[in-house]
Amino acid sequence: EYILGIETSCDETAVAIVKGGTEIVSNVVASQIESHKRFGGVVPEIASRHHVEQITVVIEEALAKAEMTIAEMDAIAVTEGPGLVGALLVGVNAAKALAFAHQKPLIGVHHIAGHIYANRLVEEFEFPLLALVVSGGHTELIVMKEHGKFEIIGETRDDAAGEAYDKVARTLKLPYPGGPKIDELAHIGAQRIDFPRAWLEDSFDFSFSGLKSAVINTLHNASQKGIEYKHEDIAASFQASVVDVLVEKTYRAAIENNVKQVIVAGGVAANKGLRKAMETKFKEERMNVMFPPLSLCTDNAAMIASAGYIAYKQGHRSGWDLNANPGLDLEMYANRGK
Ligand code: ATP
Ligand code: MG
Ligand code: FE
């Protein structure tokens, strides 16, 4: 079965065709990074306008690359939330128009379910499974006991990991998006500063706002005293603090929940320091940890088609009244009716 996936929740206009939930036939991503760069972040109105301009072209390109037609699709899957409402609406309306015109099932997909299912484009899931989701808006530990079911066992109490990266990057006056830049700098820098790690006792929750403030204060105090830290040393020290907490909590959660598989998902899963530290830790403990390839870590539509395939097989169908839901809750989504 072929699923056409559409993703427009933030600043990527993406369309993909996936066969059987696991095989990418085509995967097109039109990024708007260049347009948002001069504002230092995503501007919602600009994002919506770009999606409107791009969506038809990107749908046609995905079909052309697959050498397929809409008539050959078994269903149309689309991100219904969470995300920017004006951005989501463009994808949802395009999906509704396509599905209605061609009389295909319409499947609304949760964006984070999509990030998790990016991993199923690499390897089959084994349950129970633990997913560490680290993206621009989310930092969560999620246990899955079966396909399409998500139980959040820990989440950030303030900033998301990606958000912390982007904010620290802005403090260092690095161009948007800052995550990949900090990652690069961290590899040439040294861990000279001992930034705090928010363990929050035994909880599987996270907190990154204290770390972000510590970086800002350190830079501020240093400049007052006439000390200058190298940006790469700040980056290395910051990244060490983030990675330590992510690795340690994920490992503890994996043991406590007796999981068979550990996966990492979302934009920050592209982080080289995190990938390496996870692999080292889990190897020591003779456990496997899985990451999507870099291009499937950040927003794309193949992951939406993959999650959409499972929803399709489980009989979920969205109505013609499907709407963008900027605050869509993952557990509520998982427990929705058919
Ligand atoms: P969400 O998925 O929570 O709705 P989003 O879609 O904006 O948010 P993603 O596209 O999944 O987030 O990921 C983007 C985030 O990933 C940005 O914060 C970006 O800085 C971060 N990121 C990307 N690559 C790296 C990297 N190599 N190291 C650290 N962070 C990274
Ligand atoms: Mg993005
Ligand atoms: Fe995302």
TrEMBL record:
It is found in: Cytoplasm. CDD domains: ASKHA_NBD_TsaD_bac. Pfam families: TsaD. The keyword Coiled coil does not apply. Keywords: Acyltransferase, Cytoplasm, Iron, Metal-binding, Transferase, tRNA processing. Gene3D superfamilies: 3.30.420.40. Residues 23-305 form the Gcp-like domain. HAMAP family: TsaD. This is tRNA N6-adenosine threonylcarbamoyltransferase. It comes from Gracilibacillus marinus. The lineage of its organism: Bacteria, Bacillati, Bacillota, Bacilli, Bacillales.
